[in-house]
Amino acid sequence: MITTVTFNPAIDKTITVPSFTPGAVNRVLSGVETLGGKGINVAKVLTLLHQPSTAIGFIGERNYAFVQNLIKQENLLTDFILVDAPTRTNTKIIDPIHHITTDVNEQGFMVNETQVDQMTLLINRYAKRSEVMVFSGSVCKGISPYEFKTLLSLASSITKVVLDAEGEILREGLKASPFLIKPNIHELEALLQTTFTSDVDIVKAVKSLLKEYHITYALISMGENGSLLISSDLALKAGILPVEPVSTVGAGDSMVAGFLSAYLKTHDPRVALQHAACIGSLAVASITTEAIQRVNIDALATTITVTEVTLG
């Protein structure tokens, strides 16, 4: 089983606004509300891939009845700690004319010391029954980067851990030596305070990072430029499917789900990378997970080109 951890969940309200213009009156073409937060997004795709998973974390009590309906729609297994507050709403404005997505994200609730203690017990319990635990996204108020690292270390002392975060959370999380990290190229550049000009430069820098923090894999998403999977003795680059981009919302989370689902079945990093790239591409092609449900993932993933990055 895979357990995903989401400290700062959200109700994602995704609206489509052709030619969205700030400061003007804009007309909404369509809208949809789903339960979000990066770890929950990973769990949703894992469920579609028939990979047993449970989403744990904090959730707001004041609008929990509405959230429960969203959970049922996605057929998710969940185990949440209730917080006396509403779950935040994140609004995502998709402009299909200019292919631009604008995120308007609320901060979310604050947790107290007792709730952090409850989360520690929950993570400990699920780590013991999980092949992998995925820690994704931002933390809610009340959890410091140091406390995040402590929770991550607890899990990584028991099972494999995946870290998909940015900024100080990513920087602290590295110290827990996760099995896999999944920054996008912009998050990686911010972490290392540099701008990369070639795949070779990325591979060299990431290999040093993996060695320093005793991390097995790094999966780097680079948008239309594909993705890289890097380990101490491996550097692979995957292409993308030729799809018409609609929205990048959840694409990175879909990649994590695709990679883990295939890796646990095959233990082949090349196959896992193909699945990650395939499902990430499908996620970009749709506002919902509809595209992932319509195709034979195993067959389509084999069409993804994977090449080795040589350091020379």
Write out key terms for the chains shown.
312 residues, alpha/beta, UDP-N-acetylmuramoyl-L-alanine:D-glutamate ligase, four-stranded mixed β-sheet, 11 helices, 25% strand
Q: How are the secondary structure elements laid out?
A:
Blueprint: E1 2-6, E2 10-16, E3 30-36, H1 38-48, E4 53-60, H2 64-74, E5 78-83, E6 88-95, E7 100-105, H3 113-127, E8 132-136, H4 145-156, E9 160-164, H5 167-173, E10 180-181, H6 185-192, H7 199-213, E11 217-221, E12 227-231, E13 234-238, H8 251-266, H9 269-284, H10 290-294, H11 297-301, E14 306-308
Tell me the major beta sheet: 10 strands, mixed
Q: Between the first and last Cα atoms, what is the distance in angstroms?
A: 40 Å
Biggest β-sheet: strands ordered side by side in the sheet: 5-4-1-8-9-10-11-12-13-14
Radius of gyration: 19 Å
The chain-level mean pLDDT equals: 95
N-to-C order of helices and strands: EEEHEHEEEHEHEHEHHEEEHHHHE
Instruction: Output the CATH topology of the domain at 38-56 and 110-308.
Output: UDP-N-acetylmuramoyl-L-alanine:D-glutamate ligase
CATH architecture of the domain at 38-56 and 110-308: 3-Layer(aba) Sandwich
The first-level CATH class name of the domain at 38-56 and 110-308: Alpha Beta
Structural class: alpha/beta
How many β-strands, per DSSP?
Answer: 14
Oligomer type:
single chain
Number of helices: 11
Question: What best-fitting shape do the alpha-carbon axes yield?
Answer: globular
Low-confidence stretches: none
